[in-house]
């Protein structure tokens, strides 16, 4: 079997409301690039990458000269053809590689008639647990609904998520307001939902000192871990020395060089693997195997997935033994998806692992065209800007005049 073509289509899919984070805002929608890898046997594999637009489509088009004629079964060769680590200093293709790898695994599974997890060692769980992803949110531009800003709005939002999806673990995405206010929010969540697990992620915006203060204040709560409170391996190490909380990251350990440094001189206890950031499903499994050998826990990070990447997260979660935590997903924030059947269903905070051949999902061509047209109409948006805070930008660590005002809607 040989690859004959690669097609990339950028889409934008609406969110329930704009999602606020320490570095900016998701502007009421996610932008994703959907990749289709075609073969001479008529099998088409699906991949997905965050962001996109014309530049992403051009980047995938450029990979045709590398990959037309390539056997999709040769996944290790695929890596070296397009993401040689030395060459990648000049043409960083890790996320491109991930999307192509997803598609090749999809092709292999379809060819052999087996789901992707069978190619990855076999599943040890039939469904994967998810944490709610609780963002501070601006109101929806069209409806005026969906704001999450006050403590009671956060509590009501989590209550709704529990009722609708069954979540029992909750991740508060912080770094928007002053940490003293977000600490009040977090403590109130622990008070109102005493049986549920909690985690806090300010996207590395806090100083070491602020991080230690926050960690000390929550040590008695029902925490999964404290995620990326501050920036850098050394910053995380300094926080870890002063708290017994487990620290987690998806920012400072995202490749094997960083993982080796973390093992030699520990700064982080839980590695949040991302099938895009690490360059595919297989590198995540390799990293998880190393973590298992050195007694590090793992979970799965979310980078704003639609159904194709969600499927890769489910297959990864199905095969990892050292994954004691519910995984992350923005997925419940979406209004729609581009796969046949629409959004996958949560039951009791879990999603079933797809069992059809390959990744187990197929494109809804009408939805793909609809959201490709919407992207052409709306375009992209800068991840690191807030459309309602003119001239604002974040600092690491943040300073007093950079925090949002919890008393203002916009």
TrEMBL record:
Tell me the pathway.
Carbohydrate acid metabolism; D-glucarate degradation; 2,5-dioxopentanoate from D-glucarate: step 1/2
Residues in domain Mandelate racemase/muconate lactonizing enzyme C-terminal? 151-246
Report the EC number(s), separated by commas if there are several. 4.2.1.40
Query: What is the annotated signal peptide range for this record?
Result: none
GO MF term list = glucarate dehydratase activity; metal ion binding
EC category name: lyase
PANTHER family per UniProt: D-GALACTONATE DEHYDRATASE-RELATED, GLUCARATE DEHYDRATASE
What is the name of the protein in this document?
Answer: glucarate dehydratase
